[in-house]
Amino acid sequence: MEKIKRFLLPEEELPRQWYNIQAEMPNKPLPPIHPQTRQPMTAEDLSVIFAKECARQELDQTHAWIDIPEEVRERYKYYRSTPLVRAYALEEALGTPAHIYFKNESVSPLGSHKLNSALPQCYYCKQEGVTNVTTETGAGQWGAALSYAAKAYGLECAVYQVKISMQQKPYRSSIMRTFGAAVTGSPSMSTRAGKDIITRDPNHPGSLGTAISEAIELATTTPNCKYTLGSVLNHVSLHQTIIGLEAEKQMEMAGEYPDTIIACFGGGSNFGGLAFPFMRHQLKSQELRAESQEASRKVIDFIAAEPSSCPKLTKGKFEYDFGDAAGYTPLLPMYTLGHDFKPANIHAGGLRYHGAGTIVSQLLKDGFMRGVDIPQTESFRAGILFAQTESIIPAPESCHAIAATIREALKCKETGEEKVILFNLSGHGLIDMTAYESFINGDLVDFEYNGK
Ligand SMILES: *Cc1c(COP(=O)(O)O)cnc(C)c1O
Q1: Atom 1, ligand 1: which residue's CA is nearest?
Q2: How many structural domains is the chain composed of?
Q3: Atom of ligand 1 nearest to the CA of 427
């Protein structure tokens, strides 16, 4: 029989709703807490800085399905469905009996899954009469996606990029500016927070903490301006479920069902996006699960792959913590290494975050998924094997998912099990070639977590 490599959905099959897992979780995530009053926050509190609809979605624990606005579906059609691909060449190189599939989010115009949430966030802003959006960005994936989405819906976009990343990775700020965004290196003299930092330390290289403070200050001092985030929050994972909802239909086209689902983990949005639509079939209590599984599907092993230098899922504590270094954001109940944790300077910039989103944290606590940690050099070895077999250079973040997939596939080789493994290729690495260059030159090292 002829082998089919790529599965795409016809336009009329594209999902019309996102899946809100909060509504069906046996234990709901705990609420965000206001940093000053220490009271649970309401959607109204959150809408001071976020779009109203995003604030509402953030706390929605009742509606399992949320309509994707028509205008967002129109924009999704520019690049969706993304392909589901069978990695035959990778399987062969590994000599594994496992069937490996990946969902290829790298085909989005900006090269990663981030656009899936940037589009609805900008759309809701537009609907609510907002004219300006702002955010912070490290390596620039989120800033790039937001710049494109802002332009698509006619909003002005201002991005604070960590100064040192801007100097080390100039191409992403060029991309943002190509889409018309104003990009400022943080700390900057354009905000009070930035001025204070520069006054204290004129050579401050910037951090996500400084950039968040500046973006939030801009949002709260500019009329009609909202702040946006590309990971961690519940509404971001909600928008990303388009990935898993498509993948579910595409796996059906392939005539298979996954035993294992893997994604890399920064704040949890691409993991949740792929995993939650599949996980919805096994959220019932343990007993009910056993019953319904017999009737329908097998139990899926959900694996989130994090860097061993920033292992909040495998070595963090579940507690209320701030989302940023400075302590400006709401307190979130999550697995965290502490908001003052300074991750090593690994190349997978999108995975250098101290905490995990609140939904994923609760699911991990309740045993619905697990984390694995991957050393940096193992991730690049995996990425290079993937590039040489499947012809796509993966983002350094995505390399963690590939490394975890290879570990599982090699286990199958030992046991002879013909497992079906599905992983998310969250982005391509064509703008991250300095990272590959260092690896190839033998300059990359592993950083272990040592408790601080
Ligand atoms: C931002 C990013 C990540 C990490 O963010 P999540 O919210 O955990 O998905 C992973 N891969 C790529 C390519 C990214 O840009």
Answers
A1: 350
A2: 2
A3: 13
Q: Is the CB of 268 under 6 A from ligand 1?
A: yes
Residue 160: phi and psi, rounded to 5, are -95, 115
In angstroms, the CA 288 to CA 353 distance is 35
Same structural domain, 299 and 397: yes
Residue to substitute in 107, 113, 425 for testing ligand 1 pocket (most ligand atoms within 8 angstroms of CB): 113
Q: Where are the alpha helices (DSSP H) in 128-207?
A: 141-152, 163-168, 170-178, 192-200
Quote the domain boundaries for residue 185.
19-68+113-232
Helical segments of 169-299, H only? 170-178, 192-200, 208-221, 234-254, 269-279, 286-295
| 269 shares a domain with 285 | yes
Share in percent of the chain as helix, strand, coil (round to 5): 45, 20, 40
Mean pLDDT by 10 residues, the chain (452 residues): 92 98 97 94 95 98 98 98 98 98 98 98 98 94 97 98 88 96 96 93 88 93 96 97 98 97 97 98 69 66 96 97 83 94 83 93 97 97 98 98 98 98 98 94 91 68
* Cα(59)–Cα(34) distance, integer angstroms: 14
Q: Distance, CA 353 to ligand 1 centroid (Å)?
A: 10
Q: At what angle do helices 269-279 and 358-365 cross, to 10 degrees?
A: 50
